Amino acid sequence: MSSVPPGTPCWADLATPGLTDARRFYSELFGWTTRIAPQPEAAGYTTFLLDGRAVAGAGPPAAADQVPIWSTYMATDHADLVTTRVEAAGGQVLVAPFDVFDQGRMAVFADPAGAVFSVWQPMAHPGAELFDIPGAMSWNELVTPDPEGAKVFYELVFGWRPEEQPVTLATGGNFDRTSYTGWRCGERVVGGMTPPLSDDFPTDLPAYWTVYFAVCDADATAARAAELGGSVLVPPRHTPQGRLAALCDPQGALFSVIARPPR
In the predicted model, what is the mean pLDDT of residues 118-147? Predict the structure, then answer.
């Protein structure tokens, strides 16, 4: 069983041609240790551990021309049924459902705007075992030029209900009002959606899901990422949800970090 309900982000993993360097970079950045799958056909797939508990994964890319990317996985109790819903809602099936040894059943999709995401139907591997603490996944966010289309698509696929949430984002030294959508699944808001911030991100980026990892200090983490060979795409800034930054690892995979305000 997954540690979270169906329709909730439950896992994140990195596809990268620089798997050995990724192990070094993220272990030094987040204090993770590694567990490498012993099966030859797993091609060195690595589970990152925090205090001995699984928090994320990394493996080689599925295709030689695939760009390094962090993927968000949604929990499901029926990957094949989700596949049917994705096709009916106008999405693409990039990888049809298949069993990952005895660990779980997964599939990879793209929404109509091109944002890639996966589903995980757990067997032996439930997904992440820790959330919302420093070094663990804390948030998942869709950045898309077509928010209205995404609202229709994800409601059909996962039953998510979009909720508009006015927020204040720091831009430079000022604060600008903008809209933000929360994805409600049952009683919980399980993720978010925002249009691209064109002054921060390249305007030719397709829609994508980004993964946020919790940290104690976003500024120190951003500086450390740069020291380790990564780069800072969006410098640390304050939001009502916490201080966050968008980073790239040495191979160019985008991820974000957030330091939550004290409760």
Answer: 96
Q: What DSSP letter does each residue of 112-179 carry, written as one string?
A: TT--EEEEEEESS--S-S--SSTTSEEEEEEE-S-HHHHHHHHHHHH--EEEE--EEEEETTEEEEE-
Global pTM reads 0.92
- Residue 249 · residue 24 · CB < 8 Å: no
Q: Strand 116-122 to strand 69-75: parallel, antiparallel, or no bridges (unpaired)? A: parallel
Q: Residues 174-208: pLDDT tens digits?
A: 334 467 899 999 999 999 999 886 555 555 667 99
CA dihedral for 54, 63, 69, 195, sign (positive or negative): negative
> Mean per-residue pLDDT for 238-255?
94
- Find the mean pLDDT for residues 37-41: 91
Residue with tokens 């990564």: 230
Residue 4 phi/psi, 5-degree rounding, is -130, 160
Q: What is the DSSP letter of 251?
A: T
Q: What is the CA radius of gyration of the chain?
A: 17
Measuring CA to CA, which residue among 59, 66, 98 is closest to residue 107? 98
What share of the chain has pLDDT > 90, as a percent? 81
Q: Which residues pair with 143 in a beta bridge?
A: 194, 208
**136, amino acid identity:** A
Q: Which residues contact 169 (CB under 8 A, 6 or more apart)?
A: 175, 176, 178, 197, 237, 239
Q: Are 74 and 209 in contact (CB under 8 A)?
A: no
Residue with tokens 């997964």: 106
